[in-house]
Design a protein that fits this description.
- The structure is a single chain.
- The chain is α/β, with parallel strands linked by helices.
- It folds into 3 domains: about 5-140 and about 315-345, no CATH class; about 150-310, Glycogen Phosphorylase B (Rossmann fold, 3-Layer(aba) Sandwich); about 345-389.
- It has 14 helices and 10 strands.
- The protein has helices spanning about 15-20, 35-45, 65-95, 105-110, 150-160, 180-190, 220-225, 240-245, 260-270, 285-295, 295-310, 315-330, 345-350, 350-389; strands spanning about 5, 25-30, 115-120, 135, 165-170, 195-200, 210-215, 230-235, 250-255, 275.
- The strands form 2 sheets. It has a 6-stranded parallel beta sheet, sandwiched between helices.
- Helix 8 links the parallel strand 8 and strand 9.
- Helix 6 packs across helix 10.
- It starts with a strand and ends with a helix.
- The relative contact order is 0.10.
Length: about 400
């Protein structure tokens, strides 16, 4: 075993120990475009809540004073809960699986990572921020030319005079499990549209209108790349958002859980589409949202502009990630990839010792200066008193 690629959150930190145990090179991989404090610090990357929004808040990089307070609180809560709740539980689990072994601190193990592949870009997620060379921003690595659609899908889209709306809530959430009231509400909206609808649905549906095609599996990338697909109604998963940016398709985001609310909120902030509340969504509000995104050309131009900004680079993100992985195979256990910041204490990293010394010296200078002034004043008063006598 030469390289261990591991998601460094949600108890997958065990991958760090597997790499340590097998003397393999550790490569954390994040599908989200946002950083997490423990991961950033483990790579030597700064994590500053002043301009880096926590995924728990959904804020943009430009935060008000109140939002910075909330964001800082969210970051501290994440750090404390992870350090004193999640990490001990993971450590206990490892002790049960590997009894009798000396298991190092998990946060120390991640510092041994030679590379960090992150799905971020300078224009999404945390945006423009300082990172170490071993942090590889490989957002939109799944962006690739589309394959031809199956004949039935191609025919359905081509025969639609007003285009097609693609609906999918991902692979984790089963659309067929949604409440009957929601299903009927969405069908009612779709039946009123002049566009056709392709809906990822896992079971049969006898009351589906003629303009709706159902399928338990759909080639999402190829559908989003098709010029006839004008809108994507999505749950807002990280992969779906990146694919819709890649293929320049506006969205209506209906987040369900996890990082989906943050992903959709960022898309809304960038004018890529609109967000709907799953619990409050009604027939009228959904129809109004569809109409707005389809009729307002700014949504299409915004997603097209963002896609061009991200993909205009000398090397495809996937090729960049692969090149660095192959680099690790050519140069295993390269100590040069370990930043010197790992060897600094917190006072040293933030120059607290230097600042404290500077304050002490400044205080001493001020104390001496005040003492000299008082001495001079007293001496002058004493001389004046002697002259008067």
């Amino acid at each position: 075993m030469d390289v261990v690629i591991s998601l460094p959150v949600f108890a997958n930190e065990v991958g760090s120990y597997i790499a340590y145990k097998k003397n393999a090179t550790l490569v954390p991989f994040m599908t989200a475009g946002y950083g997490f404090p423990n991961i950033n610090w483990g790579m030597g990357d700064p994590y500053n809540p002043a301009y880096m929004p926590s995924p728990l808040t959904g804020f943009s990089q430009t935060m008000s004073f109140g939002q910075r307070i909330v964001n800082t609180g969210a970051v501290l809560a994440y750090i404390l809960l992870r350090r004193y709740n999640a990490v001990p539980k993971i450590h206990t689990m490892l002790e049960e699986v590997f009894p009798g072994e000396d298991i190092p601190d998990l946060d120390d193990l991640i510092k041994n990572a030679a590379l960090f592949i992150n799905h971020g870009t300078p224009f999404t997620g945390d945006g423009l921020r300082p990172v170490m060379p071993k942090t590889i921003l490989a957002g939109l690595m799944s962006c690739r030319p589309a394959k031809p659609l199956p004949n039935n899908l191609e025919k359905f889209i081509r025969e639609s005079e007003h285009g097609v709306i693609f609906v999918s809530f991902g692979s984790v959430v089963k659309a067929s499990k949604m409440p009957e009231s929601k299903r009927k509400m969405m069908l009612s909206v779709f039946s009123r549209l002049k566009q056709r609808v392709i809906w990822k649905w896992e079971t049969s549906m006898e009351d589906a209108p003629d303009n709706v095609m159902l399928s338990s599996w759909l080639p999402q990338t190829s559908l989003l790349a098709h010029p006839g697909v004008r809108l994507f109604i999505t749950h807002g998963g990280a992969g779906s958002i990146q694919e819709t940016i890649c293929h320049k398709t506006p969205i209506i985001g209906v987040p369900i859980f996890g990082d989906q609310p943050v992903n959709v909120k960022e898309a809304v902030n960038k004018k890529l589409g609109l967000q709907m509340d799953w619990h409050k969504m009604t027939e009228d509000s959904l129809l109004a949202a569809i109409t707005e995104v389809l009729d307002d050309p700014e949504y299409q131009s915004s997603v097209s502009r963002l896609s061009d900004l991200i993909m205009d680079q000398p090397q495809h993100p996937l090729e960049r990630a692969v090149w660095w992985l192959e680099y690790l195979l050519r140069h295993p256990h390269n100590p040069g990839m370990r930043p010197v910041t790992h060897d600094l204490s917190w006072p040293q990293y933030f120059l607290l010792d230097v600042i404290a010394t500077a304050i002490a010296i400044l205080g001493l200078v001020i104390f001496i200066f005040i003492g000299l002034i008082r001495y001079c004043c007293c001496k002058k008063a004493e001389i004046g008193k002697q002259k008067s006598e």
